[in-house]
């Protein structure tokens, strides 16, 4: 049975214009984005202060040998007291823009992946936009911990292709030294500070593969602050003295989850991008623990010719900053080069994860 369509206007395009807009009341013009997106530039910033394992062992009962064996960390960088996430992000952002051949005024949106900006509001991204000279770019923070940078790349890719922005600055930055309990033997040796940035913009070919991401909120307590900020607030609304809400982690829980759950996610990202593992050029996992990295390499069956980022040895775990920092080191050392296909995967507190394959600028 056919229906009468003589008065049906749902598919009527007689008033559409060639530009995609319409003079018909109530009809919205569709967004116009790029066919594809890619990473146009990479930048990074590492603080000057080096924290050795020997210094860490003055805080906790441990040894250089134990720390290296358990994590692969030899040293980490900590920012100065007057150096926050915005201050670290500025040089990383400028370096990424320089490589992309763009000025701050060319930035349409800034995504700041961080969990260590110490203000609920305003966002660190909005402050950065003003200091960078990118006003009036859209600016917002993204809280996905160690997976934050990959989340930011995913959003930037969709924004460029969806038409809401042409050039998006994505920054992964952390000042974890502010949230580290130096007397906690389970975490004091792990965390470092730093910032990494990329610019995502239009491309004439696919430069960022589909993102495979997800979460397991049932395990949210595996990595968390010791207590809520509200625990420092008395019933009458006044501030009360209390232990600072530093980060704590159930190490074995996180280790098992990352080792057994993240390799399949990485493989799904390769499959979604249509890239065979033998055709991969670079593997850049979140720098959480060298044993996790080694286990993922083994489970993936990664060919020996594919270089693997192990920046954790000199940077520690920098959460959202770890992937761009590791990527920049590989590019600087010539281990990775322009045009290479890099598999990125971030995972951490939430528990959350994200992975994608990108072509390097």
UniProtKB/TrEMBL annotation:
Enzyme class: transferase
Chain segments carrying region ACP-binding: 287-291
Region (Disordered): 1-34
Domain of life (superkingdom): Bacteria
Record key words, sorted: Acyltransferase, Cytoplasm, Fatty acid biosynthesis, Fatty acid metabolism, Lipid biosynthesis, Lipid metabolism, Multifunctional enzyme, Transferase
InterPro entries recorded: ACP_syn_III_C (IPR013747), ACP_syn_III_N (IPR013751), FabH (IPR004655), Thiolase-like (IPR016039)
Record remark on domains: The last Arg residue of the ACP-binding site is essential for the weak association between ACP/AcpP and FabH.
Quaternary data: Homodimer.
Record-given protein name: Beta-ketoacyl-[acyl-carrier-protein] synthase III
Gene that produces this protein: fabH
